[in-house]
Design a protein that fits this description.
Structural class: mainly alpha
Radius of gyration: 40 Å
CATH topology of the largest domain: Helix Hairpins
Number of domains: 2
Distance between the termini: 11 Å
Bound molecules: zinc ion
Oligomer: single chain
CATH architecture of the largest domain: Orthogonal Bundle
Order of helices and strands: HHHHHEEHEE
CATH class of the largest domain: Mainly Alpha
Length: about 240
């Protein structure tokens, strides 16, 4: 295969590869997988928030219970001291004051526990629901992935085949022209190579001046278009 033909072939294969890649990217399962991933991310972040709040409430409940145990213990101590032996009128009044104050604290703690356990229950329920949603999304993701994998099998094997052909075609192109092609391919979104048809390059279609045409026709077979700077092949296509 002539180098010019290998270069044209390379471009053909690359253009088809681009088409395959875009077909693969636009499969409906891809959009579905993206949507699921976004939803899963949202649920994961909500779950983090809920777990944080749940742990806070658990700590608050534990603190309150600890205080409650402490006040009960204190109450028993004061009661025991009050019951022990004879006391002055003033001492008895002190004991009573302490017991009243402790009773108020106990009441306050017990009062706080109700709403706290309700809040804990609500958070536990929200956490359970978020976990179920996360599990459901994971199942949906797996299903969509499987469907994508199944639906794209033919496309993916075509890509493998084209890539193999492409690598083979690339061996027929010099390192210098290959580098120029890769650079032009990025710059021109795939259409990097054009061929002279008469005195008109096939892609940019700007008619060459007679002197330019003369110079190009007598120069290298693979050169650069003076107008669009794509790689220009000056020879006719090789017969099939
Ligand atoms: Zn051109």
């Amino acid at each position: 295969m002539r180098e010019a033909t290998a270069l044209t072939k390379l471009q053909e294969l690359d253009l088809e590869l681009l088409k395959c890649a875009s077909a693969l990217a636009s499969m409906p399962q891809q959009a579905r997988i993206k949507t699921i991933a976004l939803a899963a991310k949202k649920v994961a972040s909500e779950l983090t928030g809920i777990v944080g709040q749940r742990k806070d409430v658990e700590l608050e409940i534990a603190d309150t219970r600890e205080n409650l145990a402490h006040y009960h213990e204190k109450t028993r101590e004061v009661q025991a001291a009050a019951d022990e032996g004879a006391h002055t009128h003033r001492e008895i009044r002190d004991f009573e004051q302490q017991l009243t104050s402790l009773a108020k604290r106990i009441e306050k703690c017990e009062f706080a526990l109700g709403p706290l356990s309700e809040r804990l229950e609500r958070l536990e329920r929200a956490e359970r629901n978020a976990r179920l949603t996360a599990e459901r999304l994971e199942r949906e993701r797996a299903t969509a992935e499987a469907s994508l994998s199944e639906g794209s099998a033919a496309l993916r094997s075509r890509i493998v085949e084209l890539t193999r052909e492409r690598d083979a075609a690339a061996t027929g192109v010099s390192a210098e022209h290959l580098a120029a092609y890769e650079a032009a391919r990025k710059r021109f979104k795939g259409l990097a190579v054009e061929r002279l048809q008469g005195n008109v390059p096939s892609v940019c279609r700007v008619k060459l001046q007679p002197s330019q045409f003369h110079d190009l026709a007598h120069g290298e077979e693979i050169t650069e278009c003076p107008y669009c700077h794509r790689i220009l092949i000056t020879s006719e296509e090789e017969g099939e």
